[in-house]
Write a structure and sequence with these properties.
The chain is an alpha+beta fold and 129 residues long. 22% of the residues lie in helices and 42% in strands. The chain is built from four helices and five strands, in the order βααααββββ. The protein has a five-stranded antiparallel β-sheet, covered by helices on one side. The protein starts with 11 loop residues before the first strand and ends with a strand. 22% of the residues are buried. It holds the Pfam family FAS1_DH_region. InterPro entries: FAS1-like_DH_region, HotDog_dom_sf. This is Dehydratase.
Protein backbone atom coordinates (compact mmCIF):
# COMPACT_ATOMS: atom_id res chain seq x y z
CA UNK A 1 0.00 0.00 0.00
CA UNK A 2 1.12 3.54 -0.55
CA UNK A 3 1.65 5.92 2.34
CA UNK A 4 -1.80 7.47 1.80
CA UNK A 5 -3.50 4.06 2.21
CA UNK A 6 -4.20 3.43 -1.47
CA UNK A 7 -3.98 -0.25 -2.39
CA UNK A 8 -2.05 -1.15 -5.51
CA UNK A 9 -1.90 -4.36 -7.48
CA UNK A 10 0.85 -6.59 -6.08
CA UNK A 11 0.72 -5.09 -2.57
CA UNK A 12 0.39 -7.46 0.38
CA UNK A 13 -0.42 -7.39 4.09
CA UNK A 14 0.22 -9.91 6.85
CA UNK A 15 -1.36 -10.91 10.15
CA UNK A 16 0.15 -13.31 12.69
CA UNK A 17 -1.45 -15.03 15.65
CA UNK A 18 -1.49 -18.18 17.76
CA UNK A 19 -4.85 -19.77 18.59
CA UNK A 20 -5.54 -21.29 22.01
CA UNK A 21 -7.50 -24.39 23.04
CA UNK A 22 -10.00 -22.08 24.73
CA UNK A 23 -10.61 -20.20 21.46
CA UNK A 24 -11.21 -23.48 19.62
CA UNK A 25 -13.67 -24.50 22.35
CA UNK A 26 -15.50 -21.18 21.97
CA UNK A 27 -15.64 -21.58 18.19
CA UNK A 28 -16.95 -25.14 18.59
CA UNK A 29 -19.76 -23.84 20.78
CA UNK A 30 -20.55 -21.01 18.37
CA UNK A 31 -20.47 -23.14 15.21
CA UNK A 32 -21.85 -26.37 16.75
CA UNK A 33 -18.91 -28.19 15.13
CA UNK A 34 -17.91 -30.42 18.02
CA UNK A 35 -15.73 -32.91 16.21
CA UNK A 36 -13.55 -34.94 18.57
CA UNK A 37 -10.31 -33.60 17.02
CA UNK A 38 -11.36 -30.05 17.96
CA UNK A 39 -12.19 -30.82 21.59
CA UNK A 40 -9.82 -33.52 22.85
CA UNK A 41 -6.18 -32.51 23.15
CA UNK A 42 -3.42 -34.76 21.82
CA UNK A 43 -0.36 -35.86 23.82
CA UNK A 44 1.14 -32.37 23.29
CA UNK A 45 -1.97 -30.65 24.67
CA UNK A 46 -3.02 -29.35 21.24
CA UNK A 47 -6.27 -29.58 19.31
CA UNK A 48 -6.94 -29.14 15.59
CA UNK A 49 -8.25 -25.72 14.60
CA UNK A 50 -11.53 -25.57 12.74
CA UNK A 51 -10.84 -24.69 9.12
CA UNK A 52 -13.20 -21.74 9.32
CA UNK A 53 -11.50 -20.52 12.50
CA UNK A 54 -8.22 -20.50 10.58
CA UNK A 55 -10.07 -18.65 7.81
CA UNK A 56 -10.74 -15.77 10.20
CA UNK A 57 -7.17 -14.68 9.53
CA UNK A 58 -7.68 -13.49 5.93
CA UNK A 59 -11.10 -12.12 6.89
CA UNK A 60 -9.42 -10.04 9.61
CA UNK A 61 -7.12 -8.53 6.98
CA UNK A 62 -10.17 -7.76 4.83
CA UNK A 63 -12.01 -6.24 7.78
CA UNK A 64 -9.11 -3.85 8.34
CA UNK A 65 -9.91 -2.37 4.90
CA UNK A 66 -13.73 -2.44 5.17
CA UNK A 67 -13.62 -5.12 2.46
CA UNK A 68 -16.89 -6.83 1.61
CA UNK A 69 -16.17 -10.26 0.11
CA UNK A 70 -18.41 -11.45 -2.69
CA UNK A 71 -16.69 -14.82 -3.10
CA UNK A 72 -14.18 -16.78 -1.03
CA UNK A 73 -12.42 -20.05 -1.86
CA UNK A 74 -10.46 -22.05 0.71
CA UNK A 75 -8.08 -25.01 0.52
CA UNK A 76 -6.72 -26.61 3.70
CA UNK A 77 -3.61 -28.62 2.70
CA UNK A 78 -2.67 -29.52 6.31
CA UNK A 79 -4.34 -29.25 9.69
CA UNK A 80 -3.47 -26.31 11.93
CA UNK A 81 -3.04 -26.75 15.69
CA UNK A 82 -3.38 -24.63 18.79
CA UNK A 83 -0.18 -23.22 20.23
CA UNK A 84 1.44 -22.83 16.81
CA UNK A 85 2.09 -19.36 15.38
CA UNK A 86 0.41 -18.85 12.00
CA UNK A 87 1.05 -15.99 9.59
CA UNK A 88 -1.46 -15.09 6.90
CA UNK A 89 -0.34 -13.06 3.88
CA UNK A 90 -2.93 -11.49 1.56
CA UNK A 91 -1.81 -10.26 -1.86
CA UNK A 92 -3.90 -7.91 -3.99
CA UNK A 93 -3.85 -9.50 -7.44
CA UNK A 94 -6.21 -7.00 -9.08
CA UNK A 95 -7.30 -3.53 -7.96
CA UNK A 96 -9.92 -1.53 -9.86
CA UNK A 97 -11.39 1.77 -8.64
CA UNK A 98 -14.99 2.46 -9.75
CA UNK A 99 -17.04 5.34 -8.33
CA UNK A 100 -17.28 4.85 -4.53
CA UNK A 101 -15.78 1.34 -4.48
CA UNK A 102 -12.48 -0.35 -5.07
CA UNK A 103 -12.86 -3.87 -6.47
CA UNK A 104 -10.23 -6.40 -5.44
CA UNK A 105 -9.11 -9.89 -6.32
CA UNK A 106 -7.09 -11.20 -3.40
CA UNK A 107 -5.03 -14.34 -2.90
CA UNK A 108 -3.95 -15.45 0.56
CA UNK A 109 -1.82 -18.10 2.20
CA UNK A 110 -1.50 -19.02 5.88
CA UNK A 111 1.67 -20.76 7.05
CA UNK A 112 2.90 -22.09 10.37
CA UNK A 113 6.14 -20.90 11.90
CA UNK A 114 7.75 -24.03 10.35
CA UNK A 115 6.57 -23.06 6.85
CA UNK A 116 3.70 -25.57 6.55
CA UNK A 117 0.81 -24.17 4.50
CA UNK A 118 -2.43 -24.70 6.43
CA UNK A 119 -4.71 -22.51 4.31
CA UNK A 120 -4.63 -20.96 0.87
CA UNK A 121 -7.35 -19.30 -1.09
CA UNK A 122 -8.78 -16.44 -3.09
CA UNK A 123 -11.45 -13.82 -2.73
CA UNK A 124 -13.21 -11.23 -4.85
CA UNK A 125 -15.06 -8.26 -3.45
CA UNK A 126 -15.00 -4.53 -2.89
CA UNK A 127 -13.85 -1.95 -0.41
CA UNK A 128 -16.78 0.27 0.52
CA UNK A 129 -15.60 3.86 0.72
Amino acid sequence: MTTNGTIREGDSRTYTRTFTNEEVQQFAELSNDTGYHHLVADEDGQVVLHGLLTATMPTKLGGDLNYLARTMEFEFPRPAYTGVEITCEATYESVEKQDDRTYLEVSFVCETEDGDVVLRGRSEGAILE
